Structures are given as C-alpha cells and as structure tokens.
C-alpha cells in the first residue's frame, strides 16, 4: 500500500504513527499530517520549505529518497581515489588545492559533474559538514576537529558566482549529487536549533540555497540565503572571531575556529550581494537565462545601493580586526584577517564592473579604491609597529606571524593597485605609481626575510594556504592584464597609453616568483613528506 494512499484513507483524527511524521514535527513533538512535500505544520510555520522524512533506511526531502549511508563504509582516502579514477577529465591534486586554476564556465557538462563530485567528496572527507552523520564520518576518517571549512567556501564560492551569472540552464549533471546535498542540509535543519548552534544552523541554510541555485530556482535560493544571513545578524557572537586570545596550547584551535567563521561570514555577505542583484535584475525584466548586464547606466545606482550595505559590513569587520587597541594581543589574531581583506578586494572589483560602464561613476570608484588602499597601508604600519614590539620582547613566533600577515596585506595592496591601474588608464596619478612601486618593494623585502627565516616550520599551516590563494589571484590578474591590454613579455607590443600597466606586469611577475619560492620553502619545512623527498 503506497504512502500516499494511506494518507488519504486515514481518518482525520487518527494520530499519525511516529515513524511517518516529518523530522521537524517529531523533534518539536507536534502532530504531523504527513502531507508531502510540505506538511501542514511546516507550511504554516516555515513558509512552505520542504519537509524531511525518514522511511526505513531512506532519508527523503519531499518525495526524493536517498539511501541512508553507513559511515563505516567511507573509503580511507576518497579524494586520492576519486582523482585517480577521473584522471582523464583533466583534474589533479593541484586543481583541488587551487580552485582558481581554471574557469568553470568553460567546462563541459561532464567535466562540471566531475568538478562537483570532487567538491562533494572533499567537503565530506577533508572538512566534515554540519550534520551528526558527517561528524561521525569525520572522526572515523581521523579529523578530530571537523571544523576547518575555509577551503570549502573558497572553492564553492568560485562555482557559486558562475552559477549565478554564466549558466543558461540548470546543471543536469548535478542531479546524482543534488539529493545528497539536500539530505545533508535538511538533516541539520531538522536536528539543530538556531538558539543552540547558530553556526551549524546558518551552514545548513547556505547548503539549501546552493542546492536550489544549481537548478536556477532563484527565489528559494534567495530565501534560504536570507535566512542564513538573518541567523548571522541575530547571533553575531557565534560567527565573529574571538578577539581575546591567550598564550597556550589552545591558541591554534581557537584561531582556526575563528578563521573558519570569519571566512564563512565574508563569503556569505559577498555572495548574498551577488544573488540579490541577480534576482532583482530578473524581476526587472532581465531574462534568467542571460547574464546580468553590468554596464547599463540606469542599473548602476540601484546596484550600488545594494552593494553599499555589504561592503560597509566587510570594512567594519576589517577595521575591528586591525584595531590599534589590539596591539597587545598574541598575533594568532591576524591569521583571521585575510578572508575579510580578500572579500573587501572582491567587493571593490565588483564595484568596478558596475561603475566602469558609466562615466559619471568613475570618480566614485577611484575614491573607494584609494580609500581601501589607504586603509591597508595604515594596517601595514600597525603591523610594522607590532613587529618592533615583539622583536624587542624576543618573541620570535610573534615576529614570524606578523611577517606572514604583512606579506598577505602587501599582496592585497598589490592586487588593489592592479585594479586601480586597469580602470584608470589615463588618470592614474604619479602617487598611485609610486605607491605601487613601494608596495612591491616592501613585499619583496618581507618575503625575502621569510625565505631566510630558520624557524619557518613553526608557521601555522594557514599561512601556506593564504600564500597559495594570493598566488592564484595574482596569476588570474596577470591573465586579465594580458588579455585586456595585449601586454607581452617582449619589448614590443606594450600599450603606450598605459606604461604603468606594463610596470605592474613586471611587478606582479616578480611578486609571483617570490611568492612561489616562499610557498615552496614553507612546504619543504612544514610538510617535507609531501614533496617526495
């Protein structure tokens, strides 16, 4: 007898068996009518989001069933196994480590399926997700923390943006994985209360938004993403980094957790902004199957207003983490800064794509970019002062951490000068070019000091991750420069209108070389086994 038939023939007042109620009603001990995909209680209290049911070995979202998984059957190294089995798809370990090494919009449907599956496997194996089952899997696989989520959000973010702007139809190749993502998110939604674990609650809504976005279901995607943002706004203490750290064995764990949550918050604010703009353009008549036209002047003002709140929030967090009052705090704090700096940089890049098509807004964009550069320069001065204090106190670890953070700040300075140069061909001032040259020189000096640092093995692993991401960003910026301005490596082919662009290319090439050497040294000292001798 089918489930639907039983539901129709049951008398109205007959209590529903516990096993047939949705998980939300079971947890809240409410009487469930068992209607699928949305029961009556959830329809009235949750606005129509699909219910989660459990039917003897199947966890279902609405009417879609997924076999329940046995955590003990998870292979010991799924990432390596998966890469080996899909070598013909052009994916390798380097692609996994560097999500910016390729452009997802150029992938075929089959290649996109492989990429999604790789993220899916890495998400469950390397990071561990928010449901009880995933935590169990993480423990079985040897991940004692189960909290390191930053690579997941960086990798997803790249595909997230492409889905919003580039894809013309739902990703059919995602179908085999779609139910799994929905199941994991819905498990968390059913099992976790916002008042008990706001971070997990927000993560689950983020996953639901992503699942709907893959099907180009923008209204529901925005709904879940907005719920995620609201959870952040209602429970800021659950997401903001810990600002008071102590010297002790627990420092690394606290720092890592704070870094993860900061990265999550930055990603969330940035991509909520993108999604809002996309939905509002769709409502105003832009077809969903076409990318947003960023260069229409009549949309620039409206899009800028949407951006304003998010960019302001990013900068407030950036200021808080670099506050001069924090100079006495152990420098683990500064390992949490790069995600926010990077998010602010991306927001300015988004500003530029909106403003460059409208002449009257050019001055505003230049003003904003120079304002961010000024902030970063002042933060660099703060780092220099702190380095002097730690050096006088004989704190070698503190000095090393500050030097690493200085490299990161300088990297983002160079990227922002690059953005400024690309969009101000004839208006870049002598001061802009001088500051750019000073930044690259500072970067070379500090990176060289790090290369000569004998205590490099004590650097936290996250430093290596930051270097790698910064290196990827630089390579991408270089590609854009070459494509946009026709810059070559020889003496000919330079654009005489923009000599500072050519200088930037040389600066970034030198920067990439130093960054690569520093990253290789870091790997050799901290992870010698990964280099094959």
UniProtKB/TrEMBL annotation:
SUPFAM superfamilies: Zn2/Cys6 DNA-binding domain. It comes from the Eukaryota. It holds the Pfam family Zn_clus. One of its GO terms (molecular function) is DNA-binding transcription factor activity, RNA polymerase II-specific. Residues 21-53 form the Zn(2)-C6 fungal-type domain. SMART domains: GAL4 (SM00066). This is Zn(2)-C6 fungal-type domain-containing protein. The lineage of its organism: Eukaryota, Fungi, Dikarya, Basidiomycota, Agaricomycotina.
